Amino acid sequence: LLTAISVERCVGVLWPFWCRCHRPKLLSAIVCSLLWALACVLAGLVYFMCDMGNSGHCWMVLGTLCFLNFCFFTPFMVLSNVVLFIKLRRSSWQHHPARMYTVIFLTVLFFLLFGIPLSIQIFLNFFVYISFVFEVCLLLASVNSSTNPIIYVLVGSYGRPRFRGSVKVALQRVFEDR
Questions:
Q1: How far apart are CA 89 and CA 70, in angstroms?
Q2: Residue 61's pLDDT is what?
Q3: Do 82 and 9 contact (CB within 8 A), yes or no?
Q4: Could you tell me where this protein is found in the cell (predicted)?
């Protein structure tokens, strides 16, 4: 989903008129639905292959997950965010919703710092398994999955003397479309 959001924001900044006039209205919903379906299929495969004791196929499924995550989704996410960052830095005459881009940047940054090590470690498990390193990578992945709500609340409440509103107000400020 981070990849889809990053690519969609990049396309929206690079070709704003196309996005407003010609982009299919249900494209985001369709892409998100397909990504959720892919995630459910892959999670189901991991469950049935790994938890049911079929370890030979388990490593094949985990290897496929690592490949998709590390070699497909992550490069698209990083590339689209780099292009977005360069485009926004060069076009100083336009007003951009800074909070939304801050959220995207921080989410991607924390994903790269905390989420990617697990994919690398699972790939390295094909060659050598070190229990402590794997457990640290699992901890980092857990931290990564809990950082997004914190990022949303902190960015949504940034610039206020004191955080007086609710979490709902902070989230509305982050995602408001001006």
A1: 27
A2: 81
A3: no
A4: Membrane
Q: Which two tokens stand for residue 23?
A: 């982009």
Burial label, 121 (beta-carbon count in 10 A; 0-12, 13-18, 19+): buried
Q: Which residues of the chain have pLDDT under 50?
A: none
Contact indicator for 173, 103 with CB cutoff of 8 Å: no
Residue with structure tokens 């857990």?
A: 142
pLDDT of residue 107: 80
- DSSP code string of 118-159: HHHHHHHTTT---HHHHHHHHHHHHHHHHHHHHHHHHHHHTT
Contacts of 80 (CB under 8 A, 6+ apart): 3, 6, 7, 9, 10
Phi, psi of 129 (to 5 degrees): -115, 120
Q: What is the tens place of the pLDDT at every residue in 109-139?
A: 888 899 888 878 877 877 777 888 888 988 9
